[in-house]
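Sequence only, no structure available. Ideas?
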Amino acid sequence: MANWPFTQGVHDIGNGVYGYVQPDGTWGWSNAGLIASQGETLLVDTLMSVPLTREMLDAFKTVPGGAKIDRLVNTHANPDHFFGNGLVADAEIIGTSEAKKEMAGFDPKMLAALAANYQQMGEAGEFLYETMGRKFDFSGVDEVTLPTRTFDHQLTLTVGDKTIELTDLGPAHTQSDTIVWVPGDRTVFTGDLLFNEGHPIMWAGPVENWIRACQYIIDLDPAVVVPGHGPITERTAVANMKAYLEYVRDEARKRFDAGMDFEEAARDINMTEYRGWSDPERIVANVFSLYKQWGAPFTAEQQRGLFGAMGRYHKELAAHDEACGHEH
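Reply:
I predicted one. Tokens follow.
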């Protein structure tokens, strides 16, 4: 079976390894995991909010050894993977030096204020509110809880009788993207290097790093892959992500060389093959990042307007689908 059932909550992978899945996997609805062995535990990521993280920790208390979290690994610095850290502040929190630096730059009060302020932020505020501000309760995150132990490149841990290998394969999705590999159980937690059946979003790049990261994960030959978003799966999904990145890179490059601006290029790329994937508006951000990688001069205003540009694409696609009588 390629994909596991896409159902909310704890998924028992076996031998003390668990995934925690949040449908529908779109903006902010991330996955996490737990590794338990011989009375020791390692949590892989927290969630977008304190209430969601509390619900997850309560669910993990029902599995053997899951009542206490000894260590936490944050795979990267997006809020939906670390905003719940405060609930396990007594644990050792592990992340790369780069991820810690990026995490420290987040102001949770800004997201909490979205509900009140989004109308003053124009198209970008409207899209941010629709995708995140309206759906999540950011109360209880007054300040971010950062890693207490940092590493660079690679770190090997022991949890009970299990060896755990942490490897930073970024910059790609963000400035630092760590995977958590449990070789004895052939299970890998990818963070957001894999959006399973969802469009990825490349905040950092370069795209070649992300493509190499996909190949690295494939070469591990995992039996189970827990993505940052979407259903638990196997390595075919990673190959699909790699193919997506290669396709978007090649198509965007043709349009860059032809002198198209990034929004025009994003609309012009034929994404029919990925029609069933969620969050199709992210093609706009991905083309923007590619253009930036290739030397396009973007203003700070264009960078700030990226959510607005995605919002326009989202509305246009929704209107097109409604006119055609189908959903994307």
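Residues 50 and 140 are 6 Å apart (CA to CA).
Hope that gets you unstuck.
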